[in-house]
Design goal:
The protein is mainly β. It has one domain: Lipid/polyisoprenoid-binding, YceI-like (Lipocalin), CATH 2.40.128. It contains one helix and nine strands; from the N terminus they run ββββαβββββ. A hairpin with a 2-residue loop joins strand 2 and strand 3. It starts with a strand and ends with a strand. InterPro entries: Lipid/polyisoprenoid-bd_YceI (IPR007372), TTHA0802/YceI-like_sf (IPR036761).
């Protein structure tokens, strides 16, 4: 049995996010701060990565003043409370074929989450990608959620948001 550890190459890794509302969607990127992945006999077995919530960028809002205002709102307690929680974390607890299960922590609140991942190892490089669908209300992000507020009309924000994770890691 061959065990390998891979350190995430943060400059080559990224997370694209998409949040939806009744009238459309917003999207952008958020950075991976650090992490590692464990492999046994060529198969992913564990690992973790830290998300730098302060690095969130909004790519669909071109006006600088509006973009800055939107960032401030995402950074506020209505959403990610970035001053208090500058990081989110994902730790793998099991891998079954291509389904990864782990604990996602946002704003100090942890829930198990599963998603399908594509993992490839070529030489000393591991690449992994997957789409994580997150119910924001489980992490105390209730702003304009239909689960908590009524009569929102076209200001409703859907509870789920997507994180499209693309990781590149190098053998340690």
């Amino acid at each position: 049995m061959k065990n390998q550890n891979f350190e995430i190459a943060v400059a080559q890794s990224n997370i694209d996010w998409t949040g939806r509302k009744v009238t459309g969607a917003h999207w952008g990127t958020i950075g991976v701060k650090q992490g590692n992945l464990s492999v046994s006999d060529g198969k992913l077995t564990g690992g973790q990565f830290i998300i730098d919530t302060a690095s969130i960028k909004i790519l669909d809002v071109a006006d600088p003043a509006t973009n800055t205002q939107f960032y401030g709102h995402l950074a506020s307690d209505d959403f990610f409370s970035i001053d208090q929680y500058p990081e989110a974390n994902f730790e793998i607890t099991s891998v079954n074929n291509n389904q990864v299960t782990g604990n996602l922590t946002i704003k100090g609140i942890t829930h198990a989450i599963s998603f399908d991942a594509n993992v490839s190892i070529t030489g000393d490089t591991l690449t992994a990608s997957g789409k994580i669908v997150v119910d924001r209300t489980k992490y105390g992000i209730k702003f304009r959620s239909g689960n908590f507020f009524t009569n929102l009309g076209d200001t409703l924000i859907y509870n789920d948001f997507d994180l499209n994770v693309n990781i590149t890691a190098k053998a340690a």
